[in-house]
Amino acid sequence: MSDLKERLNLMLMGGMVTPTIALGKKLGLFEDLGAVASEASPADARTVADKAGCKERYVREWLAVLSCAGFIEVTPDEKFWLTDEAKHEFSGMNNLSVAYMTFLPAVVKTFNELADAFKKEVRYGLEYAQFSDFYSVMDNVTQTMHDAHLIPDYLPQIGMLDKLEAGVKVLDVGCGSGYHALKMASAFPKCEVHAADISEEAIGMANESLRKQG
């Protein structure tokens, strides 16, 4: 097989597995599998499905895909479990690559509209509102990237820590869900933090987060 053909084949396999991982993240299937199964006591598809509140047939197919891809362990009698490393990487916000995989379902929803946008004299582009899941997915990716590093690592590197601790006005342009603005406001109470975005949906998410955090 030529290098090009091999790369195309790998791309195809990755393209099939990526949405399967995203599905597992959306439904919490990795956490459910980790809760009911271990190497010493692997679980069948029905047990995992019952834990997840999902249909057994669908869960069995999901388990099979990720077992073939090498992310889920499987026994000869079709019982499943996750290694400790897999439990960690697929849980919460532990792995940035997994977080980015959740973008795929949000993006492909607009595939046909995007194809039209390429053509002359059809449309000029897509509206933010068409990407209905964008901000929730972006929020997850952002937190995975920055939650542990924004305050202790990034801000000191750009020489802003002393000013923020003393109190300055901060403007977060393109604030999305408001994650960064709220995190900075909490960490630096002497600052006056403002946040703006062109999306009403994003501002709604930010205001809801503000309400919850007080």
Principal-axis shape equals globular
Largest sheet: spatial strand order: 1-2
The number of E-state strands comes to 4
Query: pLDDT under 50 segments (min length 5)?
Result: none
- The succession of helices and strands, N to C, reads HHHHEEHHHHHHHEHEH
Quick check: average pLDDT? 92
Largest sheet geometry: 2 strands, antiparallel
Quaternary organization: single chain
- What count of domains describes the coordinates? 3
CATH architecture of the largest domain: Orthogonal Bundle
Number of helices: 13
Instruction: Tell me what portion of residues adopts beta-strand conformation.
Output: 5-15%
Q: Which fold name is given in CATH as the topology of the largest domain?
A: Arc Repressor Mutant, subunit A
Specify the CATH homologous superfamily of the largest domain: Winged helix-like DNA-binding domain superfamily/Winged helix DNA-binding domain
Give me the Rg, rounded. 21 Å
End-to-end CA span: 59 Å
The CATH class of the largest domain is Mainly Alpha
Structural class: mainly alpha
